[in-house]
Design brief:
By secondary structure, the chain is an alpha/beta fold. It has 4 domains: about 120 residues, Rossmann fold, CATH 3.40.50; about 180 residues, NAD(P)-binding Rossmann-like Domain (Rossmann fold, 3-Layer(aba) Sandwich); about 130 residues, 60s Ribosomal Protein L30, Chain: A (2-Layer Sandwich); about 70 residues, Alpha-Beta Plaits (2-Layer Sandwich). About 35% of the residues lie in helices and about 20% in strands. The protein is built from 17 helices and 20 strands. α11 links the parallel β9 and β10.
């Protein structure tokens, strides 16, 4: 995580532009006094030669920013990717070299919102098929009777930057709007003007379901066969978010059978999909090749956002919108990384336990240097939000994402030691009440442990898969839990128990594999067990 100091204190830097980007961004660079070397369309050997004295590199998606490129650019400190994804950038290699990787994570919000409606109306009014008959010289007006959006119930999955804009525009079309977003505070939902409900209720009660969420853990589809079966007969599905959110085979069956009347799709898993995929031959499917960000306006915003972040980095700003390393200056960079990782994992654990929507994140440190408070806090916010926010959450945009979702963040540093010489406490709450807390520390330079949960002394390593149990403090719980897991083929690697006041108790079990849904149901039904949660890192 080491960072070179040059060229941060230099008035002018040399910026190599590898691909064509909107001119507005390049003009910003020139006005700031930087040298712009335009290599758009040039062969790779010329690009590598120009990088020999480059301080920064600006690319889109075609340039492979790999080990060969880094080797040719000994002075490179910043890579700006004019777009959202950074798949063409070797981010670990960049981090190892101390090179910041920047992107434009919000530049396509409006374009993605509008494309949602472009696809939806094309499907509702049967535009592609009708246009095709006109191109063939046929006038078949009576064949293409469509449907209106007005009066329909639109269920939005994910009320982030795109989802909230979809909600506003859907209301303008006189549609009723509901949403599922398990971690959006109720107060924020009220500000947006959209009632929240469970995913099951949304699926059964919506005429149109539109997805604006992040992909599930390990690629697990949010909507599989069971979820699609719950949807209202004749409903429509729109996906301009991520292809992996929907089980494509199950979607094909639902469309083929008539369970769903149509689907409007812009994203797929994998991309590009197979050209002979039968899904695209169904008459009730409208599909486009991932065009959500493909507007002139979005491309200009991409250019401006990327260059503005790049200018911040070149000027030596302490908080830079980087994909990989947003902080500069900790006295012990490797130590900072360990504490940030611990904070992120502890917060993710607390988020899984929290029964209410997150309205506030509180971070406290004991015995840690002052320059670690902000990195630890940002990592905690990232851990709390990353699995549930519609947008991509990284160390740079974590605070911005929290603000956009109405989540308050507080940071407190205690100079002296607490229960341990050095420790952190993360509390997630709905904005009122005590919330869910996780205390964590390092037993050595790298041995990370969560040491307390909601005040109970539960000690475990936040890694692999753990099962959290909250129960009444009565005999027989440990035995019944062990039997249920053993019968389900789940091996227990470690078991931490704690007892508190008022007959409350809890346990954390490190297991070799996640329990099946059937095993979890048996655990929840066990005598004295009040809650069961599974967390996988």
């Amino acid at each position: 995580m080491a960072r070179r100091s040059a060229p941060y204190n230099r008035a002018m830097s040399r910026v190599v532009v590898a691909e064509k980007v909107a001119p507005a961004g390049l003009e910003l660079l020139r006005r700031a006094g930087h040298e712009v070397v335009d290599c758009a369309g040039a062969p790779r050997d010329r690009l590598l030669a120009e990088l020999a004295t480059a301080d920064a590199l600006l690319v889109r998606s075609a340039t492979k920013v790999d080990a060969e490129l880094f080797a040719a650019a000994p002075s490179l400190t910043v890579v700006g990717r004019a777009g959202v994804g950074v798949d063409n950038v070797d981010v670990p290699a960049a981090t190892a070299r101390g090179v910041l990787v920047l992107n434009a994570p919000t530049a396509n919000v409006v374009s993605a919102t509008e494309h949602t409606f472009a696809l939806l109306f094309a499907l509702l009014r049967r535009v592609p098929a009708a246009a095709a008959t006109m191109a063939d010289g046929r006038w078949e007006k009576s064949k293409f009777v469509g449907s209106e959006l007005a009066g329909k119930t639109v269920g939005i999955v994910g009320l982030g930057q795109v989802g909230s804009r979809v909600a506003a525009r859907a209301r303008a079309f006189e549609a009723r709007v509901v949403a599922f977003d398990p971690f959006l505070p109720e107060a924020r939902a009220r500000e947006i003007g959209v009632p929240l409900m469970s995913l099951d209720d949304l699926l059964t009660g919506s005429d149109i379901v539109t997805l604006h969420a992040t992909a599930g853990e390990k690629g697990k589809a949010l909507l599989g066969a069971a979820e699609l079966a719950r949807m209202r007969p004749g409903a429509i599905l729109v996906n301009v978010a991520r292809g992996s959110l929907v089980d494509r085979a199950a979607l094909y069956d639902a469309l083929k059978s008539g369970k769903l009347s149509g689907a409007a799709l812009d994203v797929f898993d994998p991309e590009p999909p197979a050209p002979d995929d039968p899904l695209f031959r169904l008459p009730n499917v409208v599909a486009t090749p991932h065009l959500g960000a493909s507007t002139m306006e979005a491309q200009e915003r991409v250019s401006l956002q990327t260059v503005e972040a790049l200018l911040e980095a070149l000027s030596g700003a302490g908080y830079v919108p980087a994909v990989n390393l947003p902080f500069r200056g900790p006295a012990d960079p490797s130590g900072a990384a360990v504490w940030m990782r611990l904070a992120e994992r502890a917060a993710r654990f607390a988020a899984a336990l929290s029964g209410s929507r997150i309205g506030a994140v509180s971070v406290e440190t004991w015995g840690l240097p002052d320059d670690l408070l902000r990195p630890v806090a940002v990592a905690a916010v990232k851990g709390a939000l990353q699995s549930h926010a519609p947008e991509t959450i990284n160390y740079v945009n974590a605070f911005h994402a929290a603000q956009g979702r109405g989540v308050s963040v507080s940071e407190t540093r205690h100079e002296g030691a607490g229960t341990y010489a050095r420790s952190i406490r993360i509390c997630l709450s709905s904005g009122s009440g005590p919330g869910t807390t996780a205390d964590a520390t390092l037993f050595s330079e790298t041995d990370a442990r969560v040491v307390a949960v909601d005040g109970l002394p539960l000690e475990f390593r936040p890694e692999g898969t753990v099962v959290y149990l909250r129960n009444r403090d009565v005999p027989g719980v440990v035995g019944s839990v062990g039997t249920i897991l053993g019968d389900g083929g789940v091996n227990i690697a470690d078991f931490s128990l704690a007892r508190g006041e008022g007959g409350r108790a809890a346990a954390v079990l490190a297991v070799d594999s996640p329990p099946s849904p059937e095993v979890l149901e048996r655990l929840r039904a066990a005598p004295a067990v009040e809650d069961v949660r599974v967390v996988t890192w």
